[in-house]
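Practice record 12: protein with adenosine-5'-diphosphate.
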Amino acid sequence: MTSIRVLSVASEIYPLIKTGGLADVAGALPAALAAEGVAVQSLVPGYPSVLRAVGSLEAVYRFDDLFGGSARLLRGLAHGLELLVLEAPHLFDRPGGPYADAGGSDWPDNAFRFAALAWAAASIGSGDVAVHRPDVVHAHDWQAGLAPAYVHYGGRPRPATVMTVHNLAFQGAYPAGLLSALRLPAASYAIDGVEYHGAIGFLKAGLQLADRITTVSPTYAAEICTPEAGMGLDGLLRHRAGALSGILNGIDTSVWNPATDPRIASRYGPADVAARAVNKTALQRRFGLAEDSSAPLFGVISRLSWQKGLDLLLDAIPMLCGQGAQLVVLGAGDRPLEDGYGSAATQHASQVGCVIGYDEDLAHLIQAGSDAILVPSRFEPCGLTQLCALRYGAVPVVARVGGLADTVIDASEMALAAGVATGVQFSPVSRPMLEAAIRRAINLYRDPDSWSRMCRNGMSTDVSWRNPAKRYAQLYRSLLDSRA
Ligand code: ADP
């Protein structure tokens, strides 16, 4: 099996910089692909946290003028990742988040910040840089969306390109007047180029011009071809349906392993799910809830946003509490939701707890101590929380959309009789159906045999990157074969 070289281009990579699932994927896929004969280098922006995390860096290339300043490509190793860090102080050396300042306002020069990332990717892809030329440039999400465009219009020996959509809701559209400043040729401003509803669409460009498109679950791949979920890009995606496929995400099963996890109160495996009780008590204590081992405890770890359906859950709290259940919420995001969960925690202090913020350690304890994890998303490209829940024996209660539909086996009568259920699904995504799903989960919880069977089924589900990595490797190989 010949080895394939891939340049992965993403604006976040775990554990160096993370705001969501994209970072998890970018951080975990390279190691899984190595086992499939695919060597990955990861190109990331030189945010302060990234430069701090990578000890020794070797300069491999210098850009005299990369959208308003000089920049360097630095090669280094961190956490087993082969990194190419784009050090461009005028674009990335600033406090705040990767996309927005501390007040939550998008950086005004985001178009140039991520054009620079894509430009660097295309330069590496065309062999300008003193590193091995990749066979494939793999762009993730809108921040890397111009990479296939720069490769396409570069007019040089070109690598194959793949565009992966982690969330179609974020598209990166910028004024058409920036075209030449973004170093895009005039001819690119066309329907079969980067033009998108009178603007320059970064994600649109990638979807239009990459050789292959993937998204992170088969169901989401089908959903985004419909007007309901296509967010304005469904026409293009239908047009490119032959190039589009869905490959589920995995999770890093060494980071997410209840048998070895140092962040939880008591470690356990599928053979001793009863040992989860210690974690449940620790979780109830941490959130100041009644330490009642018989109360079904639901957990949420999420961005607090409309996408995640957490306004519906907020409305369902009186019903959940009325059933004697408990709820812990860890998340940050929309102010009304943060306030709403804060008030609910005050109002139902012994049954509802909430921590506003981002806390990896607490996320692990919630997975280990909750009886069930709620994911009532209106849309969910893949979703990682339910995969972690399966691994930790917390039963996922999920909306039947996107990757949630593909990864959880609903506890229907048939699935229960066959002993294969791993969770509860509901559809459509509405407050009544969410409440019905919570009631169904509570009823199942009151039947300890069925419940522990579901926990064990979940824990024995393969949620690792092994299968997804095989699928990506197949995709790269078939793409390169088709160009040979
Ligand atoms: P998205 O990328 O849309 O936010 P995913 O489910 O794909 O959603 O990935 C979210 C990831 O971020 C999961 O690993 C989840 O556990 C984690 N996460 C989300 N919010 C928090 C938080 N407040 N604290 C810790 N981890 C979080």
